[in-house]
Design a protein that fits this description.
Two copies of one chain form a homodimer. Chain A is built from nine helices and 15 strands. Chain A is an alpha/beta fold. Chain A has one domain: Metallo-beta-lactamase, Chain A (4-Layer Sandwich), CATH 3.60.15.10. In chain A, the strands form three sheets. Chain A has a seven-stranded mixed beta sheet. In chain A, strand 10 and strand 11 form a beta hairpin. Chain A is globular. Chains A and B meet through helix 1 and strand 1 of A and helix 1 and strand 1 of B.
Chain lengths: ~325, ~325
């Protein structure tokens, strides 16, 4: 055993090795798994926490919301929102679904590019970006801090219905003031992107194995996806629910971001009824990283059973 | 926007970027978080899956075990066992708790050193190794494939009660044949380690913030730990339960590895009663990575609510 075995170590914390300083850094938040032949990487854009507004849930008493947060061991005085784009390597093409908030004033979000880099991928190697809907936390990451393109070689595929809604001047004119900013933001992000933007329709394959389907309510053109390869299947729900501790546990609750709340509730209930019956693996943009789980019925409501982390792929 | 904006991208998958090959590699499984001032790193040693023996759970029908596995979305024809040592950076000292199975014939386990390296730590910088009990998946990682020490500068702290039990020749002589191998293994692993091994007692601080407490049943000297720093608290349960989908959901079930099954059940029920009442964060060596969660009462049984992944520390 050589010299190592001869080393007498005092019990009083006097090891021969130099002290290692604490890292102080969060673990890079990327997670690879496979759906059939497709390598999937879940990527965190970070977590936002902000004071819990009385209307964060439009139609539930704040005390009930806080009880649900406590049940999930989350802070009860804050809204906690997780952001998780994801990436597919399918038929040799790198496909990114949604982009996070991009570089911003807070380091709590805008972490997509760092986590993608940690996973060994640079923005310039992304071939296709698919957008689920036009809220800022899904599209603003298309641009870097200087306004240049974060994915300069990528085609950008957007839902045709979403484009039609947000680029319509009448819709913008009649929107409430709080929503007018979202119209302006979408127009700014997509400005001068020219024919790198293409519009996609529902229920037609968008990338090998990936088929979009309409889940309106959160926004008019809000889109989810079925990913299938061999026997593997994953449903990418996008924003059918925000934080599952609130809106999957209580699908009738309306998050302030749902643009048509009644339609969003109907979409949510129909989707979760099906997902729980089918026992399909679900990815949720606003689930906690690594944002994969199974929806389980719990009386009239649901719960999320997080998927087991795979240590080999 | 320069040349990038001028690049016309055909919708027919003809991006300018070279195809990126799939990584084919699992994400390094380490996860950092903080308990008060102490930086804690959960580290996976991998996951084993093997045919589900009729007596994997000694006192439950196989069909019931398979139903519990199905509820957890795990394969029902296999036992799935997760292995997760962990590391503390406390007062400038690197403390490793348990070591995994070490290099072995299967790449499914023995991943500790690779994951530790990914977290920026080499074996030689570990100052202290604390062992919870003497089963091979906790001690065999003390040695590399050539038999040399994996943590050559570390003091190795073992429970005095565990040492007394396993090093007693009478206990070995009267042990069932299946258990005799465990005695031989422990003796081989600890052979010629001399005074780098020290024996610890319960309820006395073992490292800054870390206090062991006795949780016998799984083995005679099986040890758990309370980690406390400032307002932060973590209970490291070690092997009070194996796979929580089976033995936390059904605490009366006896895994074949519990050496005194009745005592293990009593220890388990008492511990989970307390953990669910206190809502304390729990780390479990055999929980799925990152092996942190909260124990919740569910009628006469319990369930594990996995902790939320923190994207900042």
């Amino acid at each position: 055993m050589g010299a190592g075995a001869a080393l007498a170590v005092s019990p009083a914390w006097t090891s021969a090795s130099a002290a290692v300083t604490a890292s102080g850094k969060a673990t890079p938040a990327f997670y690879r798994h496979k759906i059939g032949d497709i390598e999937v990487t879940q990527l965190s854009d970070g977590t936002a926490q902000f004071p819990l507004a009385d209307n964060f849930v439009r139609n539930a008493p704040k005390a009930d919301v806080q009880a649900a947060l406590a049940e999930a061991h989350l802070p009860i005085d804050k809204a906690t929102v997780f952001f998780n784009p994801m990436m597919l390597n399918t038929s040799g093409k790198l496909v990114l679904i949604d982009t996070g908030s991009g570089p911003g004033p807070s380091s709590a979000v805008g972490q997509l590019m760092a986590n993608m880099n940690a996973a060994g991928v640079e923005g310039k190697t992304v071939d296709v970006v698919i957008i689920s809907h036009f809220h800022p936390d899904h599209i603003n990451g298309l641009r870097l801090a200087d306004g240049s393109l974060a994915f300069p070689n990528a085609e950008i595929k957007v839902p045709a219905a979403e484009w039609t809604f947000w680029m319509n001047d009448e819709n913008m004119a009649k929107a409430p003031d709080a929503v007018k900013g979202l119209f302006a933001n979408a127009r700014k992000v997509f400005d001068k992107m020219g024919d790198r933007i293409t519009h996609y329709e529902m229920d037609k394959e968008l990338a090998p194995g990936l088929t979009p389907f309409a889940t309106p309510g959160h926004t008019p053109g809000h889109t989810s996806y079925a990913l299938q390869s061999g026997a593997g299947k994953l449903i990418i729900q996008s924003d059918i629910t925000n934080n599952p501790a609130l809106f999957l546990r209580n699908p009738d609750w309306q998050v302030m971001y749902d643009m048509n709340p009644q339609q969003a509730v109907a979409t949510r209930r129909a989707f979760f009824d099906r997902a729980s019956a089918d026992k399909t693996l679900i990815a949720g943009f606003h689930f906690p990283f690594p944002c994969l789980g199974y929806v389980e019925k719990d009386g009239a409501n649901f719960r999320l059973s997080p998927a087991t982390w795979q240590t080999t792929i």
